[in-house]
Write a structure and sequence with these properties.
The protein is mostly beta strands. 6% of the residues lie in helices and 50% in strands. Strands 5, 6, 7, 8, 9 and 10 form a 6-stranded antiparallel sheet that branches. A 6-stranded antiparallel sheet has the order 25-36-27-32-33-34, with no helix packed on it.
Length: 502
């Protein structure tokens, strides 16, 4: 996570922070139901995502002491369905000595199945975390490892740390995978201010040799950090293997965001599919950041989690949340290979298990210059809904959904599609449009998968061709929602809604 950005927040948002500390008013109306949040205190980047024996482990940047950034450590939670999470004690706490403080910044975790590191005991494969150690007093970031032989509950820092030290102030966020053909580990790590990634190879997770560099392509307006390197089959075809690089950096003109590259990687060098100036973005909202994929998933699945940056609005007693788990796909398009994202198939399986009273289905609904409300007096007015709706545009200028509606003061959040501009936009409860993306109908239709969870909104358009994520903060009683069309007709082909309130 960019320390400069954090400093900016702490400076600009100090009045909000002090006010929240003085009042300490709980905000349960904004606590997500099916997106991860810690029980209390600050969280940012997901770390060490790994799947072990049917359990998804989420480590995350965490301040165990306060509801603001600081004392960076690895928090820990687990899940069997990516929907319900078990909170566990801090796994890797910050290191405090009389001489210095070492913050445990972002990184990854791998299962060392062959015990290449020698950290395993009793014939068991160790879990190895690779993370950035931030030394604020020395103005230096290094890469370190820690290992666990109790299933990831506790970690022991390697006595030979750091395993990589370039004597640099900004050098962070290692992501490591095992490459079977080369029989070695490969790390990608960021040089943020230089807009570069470095690739390193290792046989034992301890000694790392520089393989190559990639950088100064795509969007270079802001720093590069939190990289990942992921193999994917284009269109699901094993004969068409490509590599996906994702980097957190500047997204359009927004404050933060993520970009991606597709290309070839031979175990040493990455070659971009596109010209250096070409830019591609993971999410077109302002809040999605620092996403990384899970390691060790079965069946070649690639699924990621990201952090939803909390803006200036204070929540208490926690601050920060994760995105929903997203499956990653590469698809052939007329423009070339492109990244598509879908809510995890594991989550879809959970939806199907919900009772009938938690499901709503409407088909073939024509709307003419009005809105049709749902959920009044029912179980769907909880602001914790999963909505899957497909529109056939007609004569209407705009259409979409209105959520978080308050019948008293008429506030609402609008997820709208403007037909003339081919633009999906989100107007928050104050009527401000801060998030939008251009996307054309697919086969004459616009499909929106809207995951609204108290204060987060993730919108997957046309099967994940584009994703737009933001945060909203509706009033406590603003729980109505509706579908709408403006200045003409639109057809709602299918509308499926799941109520995920508990």
């Amino acid at each position: 996570m960019n320390k400069q950005l954090i400093t900016f927040w702490l400076t600009c948002l100090l009045p909000f922070t002090l006010l929240a500390q003085q009042q300490a008013v709980p905000t349960p109306q904004w606590r997500p139901v099916y997106h991860f949040t810690p029980p209390k205190n600050w969280t940012n980047d997901p770390n060490g995502l790994i799947y072990l024996d049917g359990v998804y482990h989420l480590y995350y940047q965490h301040n165990p002491f306060e509801n603001k950034w600081g004392h960076m450590s690895w928090g820990h939670a687990t899940s069997t369905d990516l929907l319900n999470w078990k909170h566990l004690p801090v796994a890797i706490p910050e290191i405090v000595t009389k001489d210095t403080i070492t913050s445990i910044f972002s990184g990854c975790a791998v299962l060392d199945k062959n015990n290449t590191s020698g950290f395993g005991t009793n014939g068991k494969a160790p879990l190895v975390a690779i993370y950035t150690a931030d030394l604020p007093k020395q103005q230096r970031e290094t890469q370190c490892v820690a290992f666990s032989n109790d299933g990831g509950l506790t970690f022991t820092n390697y006595a030979g740390n750091p395993v990589l030290d370039l004597q640099k102030k900004d050098f962070r966020d290692p992501s490591v995978i095992w490459m079977e053909e080369q029989q070695q580990w490969v790390m990608v790590v960021a040089l943020p201010t230089e807009h570069k990634l470095q690739f390193y190879g290792s046989k034992d997770l301890k000694k790392w040799d520089l393989l190559s560099e990639f950088g100064n392509e795509g969007d270079t307006r802001k720093i590069w950090e939190c990289p990942s390197l992921t193999p994917l089959y284009v269109d699901g075809d094993p004969s068409k293997k490509k590599w996906l690089i994702m980097i957190s950096s500047g997204n359009q003109d927004a404050a933060t965001g993520m970009q991606y590259f597709t290309g070839d990687f031979d175990g040493k060098t990455f070659r971009n599919d596109n010209p250096p100036a070409h830019q591609q973005f993971v999410d077109y909202g302002r809040t999605f950041y620092a996403a990384i994929p899970y390691n060790n998933l079965p069946d070649g699945r690639q699924t990621m989690l990201g952090w939803l940056m909390p803006f200036q609005t204070e929540t208490y007693p926690w601050r920060g949340q994760m995105s929903i788990a997203r499956d990653l796909l590469l698809k052939s398009t007329p423009e070339g290979v492109r990244l598509y994202q879908q809510p995890s198939s594991v989550l879809h399986a959970s939806l199907e298990k919900l009772p009938a009273a938690k499901k709503l289905v409407k088909n073939g609904l024509e709307i003419d210059s009005k809105e049709i409300p749902f959920g009044k007096g029912g179980s769907f007015n909880s602001n914790a809904n999963w909505i899957d709706v497909t529109f056939t545009p007609g004569s209407g200028d705009e259409f979409g959904l209105k959520i978080g509606q308050n019948s008293v003061d008429k506030t609402q959040t609008v997820i709208g599609y403007n037909k003339a501009r081919n633009e999906l936009y989100i107007a928050n409860e104050k009527g401000v449009v801060a998030d939008k993306v251009t996307v054309k109908p697919s086969e004459g239709k616009i499909r929106l998968q809207v995951l609204f969870d108290k204060s987060s909104v993730e919108v997957f358009v046309n099967g994940g061709e584009r994703v737009l994520t933001t945060l909203v903060f509706p009033a406590e009683k603003a729980t109505g929602w509706s579908v709408f069309a403006a200045n003409g007709k639109v057809m709602v082909d299918t509308l499926k809604v799941w109520d995920l309130s508990r």
